UniProtKB/TrEMBL annotation:
The protein's name in its UniProt record: Adenylate cyclase
Start and end residues of each OmpR/PhoB-type domain: 7-104
Keywords linked to the UniProt accession: DNA-binding
Source species of the chain: Bradyrhizobium iriomotense
Pfam families found in the cross-reference section: Trans_reg_C
InterPro entries, alphabetized: OmpR/PhoB-type_DNA-bd, Sig_transdc_resp-reg_C-effctor, TPR-like_helical_dom_sf, TPR_rpt, WH-like_DNA-bd_sf
UniProt xrefs under Gene3D superfamilies: Tetratricopeptide repeat domain, TolB, N-terminal domain, Winged helix-like DNA-binding domain superfamily/Winged helix DNA-binding domain
DNA-binding span(s): 7-104
């Protein structure tokens, strides 16, 4: 049974151990032991001067886990190094085949409250969401690879303009320690921590990654990446790209939830844009009507806010394409897209939304892909650039590019709020190549990802009709008209400048499903 501790401060010699946070103070200078190092030191102090067996120490530091004894040896060595500062002697004695014993100055235990009261952060939180990537746990032979992955992740995250990323030299202070995420947040003044591990067996590499909120300690996102060893440098790049691509939308969702809990009258331009984001991401005109006043307020506060212009462009696109094809909405979409490009040359997400509006509403696909490619040059992990680019390619009749780009986007961000658009593009690509069964599968995925979006039902109706499943196709067509009563085949295709050959085949299928010309 694990030895249980109440939060407290343990004082001995010139040291004080904060039992809850794992901070070891020598005078006023902190030395971070991490959760496991602190658990070992607490148990040794509590049991002093009696010996503590290795099994008891392992259970205290790794409760319920089956770990090798070498892990304990590493932690004890780190603990000894921490105690050697300020004249601290060899206060942890090794008892061969028995365990360890604390033999330093007498210890005094001061009871604590068990909460975070009184723990002030060392730095004020930045206005942007902030993150540290801690060194990944690894075996000895994987050290260089693990560090390379972490450095690539830090570099990739640093390209995301709206994110404050702690430099490698600060985050690597936690090398060899199991860090408490709340303590990391307080010490570095940040909101999120990414931790992970690298394991290698024969020709396989497994990366585990976990993103946590430092305020609550709650896990926001976790993923496992299994790869076959080949070119290790290429593998390092691939994994870092996948991790960054998955983190970005997860962080945005976490930030949106955080902002929703704040009083609306306290919002600045950044927070107004975050509040608008879920409605923009919905792709539907009624939700766009909710987003637009917040974006207008944000732009009144900061007229050159590129991402606000990008979101406004998408909102007007949603109104244009699914709320009557009004020319004023199309013009507003293009105007905001051009402003997003003008003010956001270093903002990958703003360029992505701008590219989409230019491709879909200005019908300028060359300009659209220039914007997408500029976004990807800034931040190759921007999954949304691949996803929205795939949609533009799909309606242009570029089947292979639509499928390839959509698959890249899904690979980077499998649970992206825009995943429905990637599957929609796949459906278009397969339909264009007369692969109707594959088109129907992609359309089902699109519909499951966002059943409130009318175009997911359009693709489903067309694919099912092309397969001769007319009853199901007509049921999907009913859903189209419920969500978008103004839907008309010819006007919709004109609105997106659908490629003529694709328009002819899609139109035939949609008419067979019962949608109006």
């Amino acid at each position: 049974m694990a030895h249980q501790f109440q939060p407290a401060t343990y004082k001995f010699g010139s040291f004080a151990l904060d039992a809850e946070t794992g901070a070891l103070l020598c005078g006023n200078a902190p030395t971070l032991l991490g959760r496991r190092g602190a658990a070992l030191l607490r148990l040794l102090l509590e049991r002093a001067p009696s010996p503590v067996g290795k099994d008891a120490l392992i259970e205290a530091a790794w409760p319920g886990l089956n770990v090798e004894e070498s892990n304990l040896t590493v932690q004890i060595a780190a603990l000894r190094r921490a105690l050697e500062q300020d004249g601290g002697g060899p206060w942890i004695e090794t008892l061969p085949r028995r365990g360890y014993r604390y033999i330093g100055p007498p210890m005094t235990r001061i009871a604590g409250s068990g909460d975070d009261a009184g723990h002030e952060p060392a730095f004020q939180l930045p206005e942007k969401p902030s993150i540290a990537v801690l060194p990944f746990e690894h075996s000895a032979e994987s050290a260089w690879f693990a560090d390379g992955v972490v450095e690539d992740i830090i570099t990739g995250l640093s390209r995301i303009r709206w994110l404050f990323v702690i430099a490698r030299y600060s985050s690597f202070v936690w090398r060899g320690r199991v860090a408490d995420v709340k303590q990391v947040g307080r010490d570095l003044g940040l909101r999120y921590v990414l931790q992970g591990s690298v394991r290698r067996a024969d020709d396989r590499v497994r990366i585990n990654a976990l993103l946590a909120d430092t305020a609550s300690g709650a896990h926001i996102w976790a993923e496992r990446f299994d790869r076959t060893v080949g070119d290790l440098f290429a593998l390092q790049d691939e994994i870092a790209l996948a991790v960054v691509g998955a983190i970005e939308p997860s962080l945005r969702r976490a930030e949106v939830e955080r902002i929703r809990r704040k009083r609306p009258d306290s919002l600045d331009a950044y927070e107004l844009v975050l509040r608008a984001q879920p409605d923009v991401d919905s792709g539907m005109p009624d939700r766009a009507a909710i987003a637009m006043p917040q974006l207008q307020r944000a732009l009144a506060l900061e007229p050159t806010y590129a991402l606000a212009h990008g979101f406004a462009a998408m909102s007007h696109h949603n109104r244009f394409l699914r709320a009557g094809l009004k020319e004023e909405d199309r013009l507003a979409s293009v105007r905001h897209a051009r402003l997003a490009i003008e003010h956001g040359r270093d903002d990958a997400l703003a360029l992505t939304f701008a590219g989409f509006s230019l491709g879909m509403d200005a019908h300028d696909r060359q300009a659209a892909f220039a914007a997408f490619e500029a976004a990807l040059a800034l931040s190759p992990s921007t999954a949304l650039a691949w996803i929205l680019g795939s949609v533009v390619a799909g309606w242009a009749g570029e089947a292979e590019r639509a499928i390839d780009w959509s698959e890249r986007g899904i690979r980077l961000s499998p649970f992206d709020p825009w995943a429905f658009a990637a599957y929609d593009a796949q459906a278009l690509g397969h339909f264009c190549r007369d692969r109707y069964a594959e088109a129907a599968i992609a359309a089902y995925k699109s519909n499951l990802a966002n059943p409130a979006h009318s175009i997911t039902w359009v693709q489903l109706a067309a694919s099912l009709a092309a397969l001769g499943r007319f009853d199901e196709a007509k049921a999907a067509a009913v859903c189209v008209l419920e969500l978008q009563p103004t839907f008309r085949i010819s006007r919709q295709f004109a609105g997106v400048a659908c490629a003529p050959e694709l328009a002819a085949k899609l139109g035939e299928a949609l008419r067979a499903a019962g949608l109006p010309e």
